[in-house]
UniProtKB/TrEMBL annotation:
Residues 3-98 form the SnoaL-like domain. Pfam families: SnoaL_2. It comes from the Bacteria. This is Membrane protein.
Length: 130
């Protein structure tokens, strides 16, 4: 998990994408339907890098099998303080095949939703290469 964490903390979009499995499933904290695939998930995470400010991981938890991890973070979206957690599952190759993000409080989820909605046209262009 260190590679993904370091990539996120360095805001290295290429290294983040390299940590994702081709068939990764991303569960957003502000969307009901999961997003599937490396290209779309990587584009979403690039959007997140654009809207999160002062991001930092504050705790890391790992399951006994080494394939499940939780990375607790703190950040801001504009003036709104956000607390959250990235829940990750690794496939047999050590790539992230499941990524679920949760945030709190409600005001943070609302701020994130609005900021990501503004990013989504760009995210879609990046994901499709158009």
């Amino acid at each position: 998990m260190t590679a993904f964490r370091k990539a996120v903390e360095a805001r290295d979009a290429e290294a983040i994408e390299a940590a994702l499995a081709d068939d990764v499933v991303f569960q957003s904290p502000v969307a009901f339907k999961p997003y599937q695939g490396r290209a779309l998930t990587a584009a979403i995470l690039r959007g997140v890098l654009r809207v999160f400010e002062d991001f930092r991981y504050v705790r890391e938890l790992s399951g006994d099998d080494g394939r499940d991890h939780a990375l607790v973070f703190e950040t801001r979206v504009g003036d709104v303080r956000v607390e959250g957690c990235d829940f990750l599952h690794l496939d047999a190759d050590g790539l992230i095949d499941e990524l679920t993000v949760m945030v709190r409080p409600l005001s943070a989820a609302q701020a994130l939703s609005a900021a990501m909605a503004a990013e989504f046209p760009r995210i879609q262009r990046e994901a499709t290469g158009s």
